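re: ur question from yesterday

yeah so i grabbed the chain u mentioned. its 307 aa long if i counted rite. heres the sequnce exactly as i have it in my notes:
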Amino acid sequence: MKKVKEGAVILAAGMSSRMGDFKPVLKIGNLSILERIILTFQDAGIIEIVVITGNKARIVEELVKSMNVTCLHNHKFATTQMLDSVKIGLKYLEHRCERILITPIDIPLFSKESVMKLMDSKGMFINPVHRGVKGHPFMIDTRVLPEILAYTGNKGLLGAVESCDYEQIEVEVEDEGILLDADTKDEFKSLLDLYYKRKLKPKVRVSVEKEESFFGTGTEQLLNLIKIGESVKSACGKMNLSYSKGWKMINQVEEQLGFPIVYRKRGGMNGGKTILTEKGIDFLEKYQKFEKESIKSVDEIFDRYFF
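ran it thru and got these structure tokens back, copy pasting raw so excuse formatting
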């Protein structure tokens, strides 16, 4: 299995005892806290997302069933530390990703831009920082996971990180959302105040056209999943697409570009696979860079006019 650059672990196994209400389903605008975190990661380009469940696991699983995420259950959630939930997610993603972002369910309003700034940074451990204070999500390079997973102390993830002999890189972000949590009702009210302050934002959908529009966000996700899993069937399943629809999208792209973007390799012990051609990989990477720069430019223009 080929690794993707980044994955994410969302910790949603807790009892929500201080809040009183079950945090993952609390609404901020039209979305629950958990949905909002997932969509922020996905908007930043992260497709390998794990949700660690515990208390009211079935409610959480039902909430995210159509969001292309993986739910893993901490059966001992009532008696274990948060680090035990973290380890469940890290073990699952260890051989799937090069780096992993970790966030508790309590902190739902960090921005896509903050996530992308972390993804553009280098280091074994990377902390987002706002005005000198560390926040979430926290990013770990998977090369240090053997040391993190072996930690048995009682100081949680911080203790595990400090037990490793690597510098913690700090990345300054203009985003107070990395700090604001929803541990109590008063803190949740502060979150809502920030949300309504931020509510205006641009929405950009970048597509490529020739005789017709043939390549956009959906096609990009499909090719990304094919690149990772080397299977059109698996990619379509993760996107809730029919197999025939997936191939229709691929055929349309190839017709407009004038060259093949996938190659079907038949036979063998594993029954064959589908991989991207060199030209397909090149076009996908160019589109992703174009999309990223376009969104950044539109955000800057929007801020100039509206803030």
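noticed a couple things. The chain has a mean pLDDT of 90. also The two ends are 45 Å apart (CA to CA).
anyway ttyl
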